[in-house]
Design a protein that fits this description.
By secondary structure, the chain is α/β, with parallel strands linked by helices. It is built from eleven helices and five strands. Helix 4 packs across helix 5 and helix 6 crosses helix 9. The longest helix is centred in the last third of the chain and has 27 residues. The termini are far apart. About 30% of the residues are buried.
């Protein structure tokens, strides 16, 4: 056990290398894993790890290092004196454990929390009834190869996963869908999501705000495509400011977890990771249909009626 000065230096290094608060490292992340209550600094570190199992704390640190930097697994292995294949197995194992326990942290607000969430959204820019904001973001990946590889090429020309996020006013994540390739339209992901089913069945209350890539419905409110009146302009201004929270979440995630903004080299099954078996799988033989962004006349009437009630 080193001196207090040496320990403080090690803790500062942890914050720098793994982008995680030093107090949360052992108490928050590792709580989900059945490890003895001993800190990293109390463990005896062997100079030669060949033939020895990698302890659970090290596995979490290795995965965090990959999430935080997005560096090559070979480079990560050099830091911990482990082989690339070992690093790959560890990242997959820790990622799977987190994904399997996702619903412990990622959930829609309970009925008794809806009013609080709506008040917080309303305080942003006076848009009434909002309980969530939705958007999709592209996560770059290496080409998965095979006959279906081109399904992952997005409209910008590079390979990606199109990931749907639904968030709250404090940038908390309510729902995430990771299984769709980059060529799939945002609206189609939502149409085949568990979130829409919950909204239609009345299990999730309130309004979801989204950008113009989605259809205007009784559950989802999008910007007015051609605002002319003062009321329509006020609606769009309030909508844009309120929806900005999901844009910030996307930015923070890619800044905190650099692996999301750099090309993921992990296997496609590991990158997608089945977070929710209730979500529908993408069928490669299908083709995206034309998306009616404004939801037709019914969507137009729903939005205009809402504007007349709240923004006149």
């Amino acid at each position: 056990m080193g001196t207090d000065k040496e320990l403080d230096s090690l803790k500062l290094q942890l914050v720098k290398e793994f982008l995680l608060n030093k107090n949360k490292l052992s108490s928050y992340i590792v709580q989900g894993f059945p490890t003895p209550k001993r800190t990293l600094f109390e463990r005896q570190i062997h100079t030669d790890l060949r033939g020895l199992p990698v302890n659970k704390m090290w596995k979490v640190l290795i995965a965090l290092r990959f999430y935080a930097t997005g560096c090559y697994q070979l480079v990560n292995g050099d830091m911990f004196e482990l082989g690339q294949s070992t690093i790959s197995r560890i990242v997959k194992d820790v990622s799977l454990r987190i994904a399997n326990n996702l619903r412990a942290w990622v959930n829609f607000p309970l009925p008794n929390q809806v009013e609080i969430v709506q008040k917080k959204f309303y305080q942003i820019s006076k848009f009434p009834g909002v309980t969530m904001a939705m958007d999709c973001t592209h996560i770059p990946i290496s080409s998965p190869g095979g006959e279906q590889a081109e399904y992952f090429r997005n409209r910008k020309g590079w390979m990606s996963l199109n990931v749907q996020l639904i968030v709250g006013p404090d940038m908390e994540i309510f729902d995430v869908v990771t299984r769709w390739p980059g060529s799939v339209h945002d609206s189609r992901i939502f149409q085949n999501s568990r979130a829409l089913e919950l909204m239609e069945n009345g299990l999730v209350k309130g309004i979801c705000i989204a950008d113009g890539g989605y259809a205007q419905t009784q559950f989802v409110y999008t910007p007015h495509p051609n605002p002319i009146t003062n009321a329509q302009k006020k609606y769009n201004y309030s909508h844009i400011r309120t929806r900005n929270v999901v844009e910030r979440v996307n930015g923070v995630l890619k800044s905190r977890f650099r692996c999301l903004s750099r090309k993921l080299g992990t296997a496609i099954k590991t990158s997608k990771m089945h977070l929710d078996e209730e979500e529908l799988q993408f069928q490669y033989e299908t083709v995206d249909a034309e998306v009616m962004n404004d939801g037709g006349n019914n969507g137009f009437n729903i939005r205009n009626s809402f504007i007349a009630r709240h923004f006149m």
